[in-house]
Amino acid sequence: MGYECSPEYAENEEQKQRTELRERYLRLLSFLGGREVEVEMLDRTHVTGKFMAIKADQTHYIVDSLKTPIGVVKRAALRMDDTLVISTDVTDVLPHFRASSC
Description:
This protein is of the alpha+beta class and 102 residues long. Helix content is 25%, strand content 37%. The longest helix has 26 residues, at 7-32.
């Protein structure tokens, strides 16, 4: 039985993967802060505004100048469970990334 098959190795690898996913998630939240976002809600309503913060328990997030089909809300807390998609324009950061050529 090789080291790669041991339970300790598997647990260590899983922990590394979880750590990487958590780091990516936190970088995404940091990236979204202050950016204009488009949100598709569970009821298929589309709204836009400036993503400001997320609650520590990740159940709600704050959007400023939320534009809805019936008007603009100065600041709103949206439920994560009611959200299908959060998207933003990334063309301003794409020049910093280069595709690797093989």
